[in-house]
Amino acid sequence: MDFPTALIAPALSGFLLGGSLIVAIGAQNAFILRQGLLRRHVFVLCLICALSDAALIAAGVAGLGALVSASPALLAFVTLGGAAFLAIYAAVAFRRAFAPQALRAAADGGGSLQSAVLTCLAFTFLNPHVYLDTVLLVGSVSARHTGDARIAFATGAMLASFVWFFGLGYGARLLAPMFARPRAWTVLDIAIGCVMALLSFSLLRAWWIG
User: Comparing C-alpha atoms, which of 65, 62, 35, 61 is closest to residue 48?
Assistant: First the structure.
């Protein structure tokens, strides 16, 4: 059927954008990795991270996306701004690739479930970048789509969070030896940079074509 096929592209775009934003060395990912290594509260913590991302993405897509789509001038502004922001992210990722560091698990929150949940929430909502990434950036980029395509884009971005967090939490014992080596992060950051650059180019192309 043509209808679901037409939603593949926006869903994939959302998945790639969401995945590129979430896959980075940081306190939240380090915390989930450590909990996965210890096998402590892995499901609950991964679910909290993924649902938090989903809620923020939904807020950005529903609120900012609707606001932007109503104004052609604002749409052009956020499209160009999003393209510039993605290009900067790509540059930062490429720079990290030339100065990689091994991922060190966070030292807090390894005890009770309550302590782990509070630490997880702090890592999630006290990080200003989470709002910039999910609410502003994803919300702005989603404005390029309308109707079901916007929903597909948001769903793809949300799915990326679920795949990443549960993959990281339950695959920690397999990933830890590999990502303890800086070279692994070099490869990952180069991949992130390429995806960001491609998404930036696609936004510029969409704006140019109109």
Answer: 35
